[in-house]
TrEMBL record:
Organism classification: Bacteria, Pseudomonadati, Pseudomonadota, Alphaproteobacteria, Rhodobacterales
Transmembrane segments: 12-35, 82-104, 116-137, 179-207, 214-233, 239-260, 272-289
Locations listed in the record: Cell membrane; Membrane
Native source organism of the sequence: Marimonas arenosa
Listed name of the protein: Probable membrane transporter protein
Transmembrane keyword on record: yes
């Protein structure tokens, strides 16, 4: 069943969009990522213009993340105080990101920037997560099944001022690192149409030292507000939010997130991380390939740029 998307100006199969929304919703519930890092490139692949894909995908992430957070709140695996600190940074970052996005759009360079950002970030993060997860699984096998509970060493994070206690995460650290992580994620949400979970989840585990079980729900809590704010800014400044596309992705995403949360509880933390890393690397490879191979239509960018 073909449906015409007025803002994107393309016709797409409605069931394909529902399926993509469902798939990304499952990932959202399992890994605590908004799923935009996967969905936005998938939208590029089916012919949605990057500027529309970025703005609309931020909209879809709100719903799938909200659905996932409800499931995590019931399990008490959300650190609301940590989420609040991340959120303040995220809103500042999102505003900066939309300003940069608009500037590059006026230069006609936004499509290239979005795709290059994806290749760089997905490559680095996917690689690091994959190596770390393999090491964690090896350590677990050596210790006879259970990971060795090692005491966290004091790092630069513990030396910073403005310390506060995050009870749900069992941490006593400065609010500066979570705020910086929030700003970085906010900028990426605006430029790449992602919730930023694929950066925030590793940062919360490895930099802040949060337990993996709490990370997923807390990450989703911050993602909801930052992506909602980003969508609002894109809709009012760029007019690139396609509601027909968003609704189809939303429906699939909400259903998928509930399924994903149930699957995520059954898997070990190391298994979750290695699955996420493998997926990130696959999408990165496809995007890099598309950028390097000469397109069939060399001048298609010039058409969308001239109003």
């Amino acid at each position: 069943m073909q449906i015409y998307l007025p803002i994107a100006e393309v016709s797409v199969n409605a069931f394909l969009l529902l399926g993509l929304g469902g798939l990304v919703g499952v990932l959202s519930g399992m890994f605590g990522v908004g799923g935009g890092f996967l969905m936005t490139p998938l939208l590029f692949f089916i012919g949605i213009p990057p500027a529309v894909a970025v703005a609309t995908e931020a909209n879809q992430i709100v719903a799938s993340s909200f659905s996932g957070v409800l499931a995590h709140l019931r399990r008490k695996t959300v650190d609301i105080k940590m989420g609040g600190v991340l959120l303040v940074g995220g809103l500042i970052g999102a505003a900066l990101g939309v300003m940069l996005f608009n500037y590059l759009k006026s230069l006609g360079q936004v499509d290239l920037l979005v795709k290059l950002c994806y290749v760089v970030f997905l490559g680095i993060i996917g690689g690091l997560m994959f190596v770390e997860s393999l090491n964690a699984i090896r350590r677990a096998k050596k210790s006879g099944g259970a990971p060795v509970p090692k005491r966290r060493q004091r790092t630069w994070v513990h030396a910073l001022p403005f310390k506060t206690r995050f009870r749900t995460s069992g941490l006593y650290i400065s609010v500066i690192p979570p705020a910086i992580v929030g700003v970085a994620v906010g900028v990426l949400a605006a430029i790449m149409g992602v919730g930023g979970g694929f950066i925030m989840v590793p940062a919360m585990i490895y930099i802040l030292g949060m337990p993996t079980k709490v990370v997923v729900g807390t990450s989703l809590l911050q993602i909801i507000f930052v992506t909602a704010f980003t969508t609002l800014l894109h809709a009012t400044t760029n007019y690139t939010v396609d509601m027909a596309l968003a609704v189809l992705l939303l429906v699939g995403g909400v259903i998928g997130a509930q399924i994903g949360t149930r699957i995520g509880v059954k898997l070990k933390a190391e298994q979750l991380r290695i699955l996420l890393a493998a997926m990130v690397l696959m999408v990165c490879g496809k995007l890099a390939y598309d950028l390097l191979v000469q397109p069939a239509e060399l001048y298609s960018i010039g058409v969308t740029g001239g109003h």
